[in-house]
Design brief:
Blueprint: H1 3-9, H2 19-43, H3 50-71, H4 78-99, H5 105-127
């Protein structure tokens, strides 16, 4: 099952499915969970990972909120969605930059999904009318 398919089945989406927004929602959902997992793994590391944990948790929360708004097709609040997508792209970039400072495999994976998510958020912003 795909979240893109679920979005396309919404009655308000039948006339037009925004593929870029669907891709962003897909990555936002995964990024939220990957950041949460990375934060948890960072807590188990022997070194001080306080800043990485904080950014991963913040990124997870912002991605989660943005994905929820991106899923909603009823009504219209594109200005708010646009702002959230832009904020999310910036947060993902910050989280990726911090994770890239560490040589832990979980941080490398987190940085990768954050970079992908940021790119999809920017593409979604460009796709909104």
């Amino acid at each position: 099952m795909s979240i893109r398919k679920m979005i396309s089945l919404h009655p308000a989406s039948k006339a037009h499915v925004n593929q870029a927004l669907g891709d962003a929602v897909h990555h936002l959902m995964y990024c939220s969970k990957m950041c949460l997992s990375c934060a948890d793994a960072c807590m188990a590391e022997d070194m001080d990972m306080t800043q990485c944990i904080r950014l991963c948790l913040d990124c997870s929360d912002i991605c989660e909120a943005t994905s929820r708004l991106g899923l909603r097709r009823t009504g219209d609040d594109q200005p708010m969605l646009r702002e959230l997508l832009e904020l999310c792209a910036r947060m993902c970039e910050q989280c990726a930059a911090e994770c890239e400072r560490h040589d832990h495999e979980h941080c490398k994976l987190c940085a990768q999904i954050c970079r992908e998510c940021a790119a999809d958020c920017r593409n979604a912003v460009a796709s909104l009318s």
